[in-house]
Amino acid sequence: MPIVSVQDVTKTYASGFQALKGVNLEIDEGEILALLGPNGAGKTTLISSICGITRPSSGRILVGGHDVVTQYRQARRLIGLVPQELNLEPFAPVGPGVAFSRGLFGLRRDPARVEAVLRQLSLWEKRNARMRELSGGMKRRVLIAKALAHEPRVLFLDEPTAGVDVELRRDMWKVVAELKRQGVTIILTTHYIEEAEAIADRIGVIADGQILLVEEKAQLMARMGRKNLSVHLREPVAAIPAALAGYELELCNGGRTLIYSYDTKSDGTGITRLLSDLQAAGLSLRDLETRQSSLEDIFVDLVKERP
Ligand SMILES: Nc1ncnc2c1ncn2[C@@H]1O[C@H](COP(=O)(O)OP(=O)(O)OP(=O)(O)O)[C@@H](O)[C@H]1O
């Protein structure tokens, strides 16, 4: 049984705007799913619906088998949510704040658990600091600690690394990997494709209130991946020779490099023929290199190709 099951969910806001247009999504226990999508795609609306903060207009959502509307308490107990905004009390101290979040779920005090969470997020030394004394990155960690205080089985991270520096982003990825090791299911939204590429098991692409695809990251990259062959020339050319028009080459690097894009899955890549045609056109080669297209290329193509 999936830990989260989203069934035909739509959401129309009071303004009449339809933010979700029939979303179906199953999330397995223990996986990391990254939801990628442009601004306004509906990512936050979807997460808020699963967490019971926004009520879907139609459809059904189950978390751990509990309906998030009719069995709100049981469902919510299983969920930790790290919101996008840093909505922390400026004067609240870190440690008691995390303990308080646990108490909100009616759980008994458990200082050992709170300490473990604080240590895991490198916040133990800061346990007596007030929120306003912390850096933005530390505040984000506090939000995660608060979301973990009641031992949720599913953790939602809404853009966990928006606006944080590269080092902190990598730190955050380590935290996510560690949580996965502990068996926590993680759903994160992100604008950063490299983030999805670095940590997700599966990738969901959402645009305009619809899920365009959900797929294993490795499969997605293999299925949709193209490769680019860069041909570096000894002498620059002003234009692509007419004899090579059929290859749809791109000329760059001041006329010194030709880029040929090919499908890694098709039977013939066309490379052999291209190389002999290059020679026939009188071009002499200095070097060749190939590059696998990234998730970013795939994502841009997907969102662009929509009717
Ligand atoms: N309370 C609301 N009332 C009306 N429209 C809303 C409301 N909340 C969100 N929307 C609209 O729904 C759409 C989806 O918003 P949502 O925040 O879910 O997108 P998102 O994918 O999370 O975007 P971002 O990446 O910018 O956070 C947007 O067009 C937004 O303006």
From TrEMBL:
GO molecular function, one term: ATP binding
Any matching Pfam family: ABC_tran
InterPro entries noted in UniProt: AAA+_ATPase, ABC_transporter-like_ATP-bd, ABC_transporter-like_CS, ABC_transporter_ATP-binding, P-loop_NTPase
Name of the protein in question: ABC transporter ATP-binding protein
Entries under Gene3D superfamilies matching the protein: P-loop containing nucleotide triphosphate hydrolases
Keyword ATP-binding (UniProt): yes
Native species: Mangrovicoccus algicola
PANTHER family in alphabetical order: ABC TRANSPORTER ATP-BINDING PROTEIN (PTHR42711)
SMART domains reported for this sequence: AAA
Organism lineage: Bacteria, Pseudomonadati, Pseudomonadota, Alphaproteobacteria, Rhodobacterales
Domain ABC transporter, chain residue ranges per copy: 4-233
Keywords from the UniProt entry: ATP-binding, Nucleotide-binding, Transport
